Amino acid sequence: MFPEYRDLIAELKRSDVHFLHLFDKHNALDQRIKNMEARTEAGTPDEIEVLKKKKLLLKDQLYGMLQKARPQG
Question: Taking the domains of the chain in order of start, what are their residue ranges?
Fold first, then answer.
């Protein structure tokens, strides 16, 4: 996710507890969705769709935080 922000993501994960929480929650949702799609975890198509929407919302929030934190130049 956001390879162009790799260094900034690492910095924010160390310095911003809220960013770290959202980042970890996004990754956990991503893994859960993959498990459901691979049928290693139970989940209906509707449940998967809801999780994907939650994941996208988290991604949008993380992107907004990255935009605010990035050095201007």
Answer: 3-69
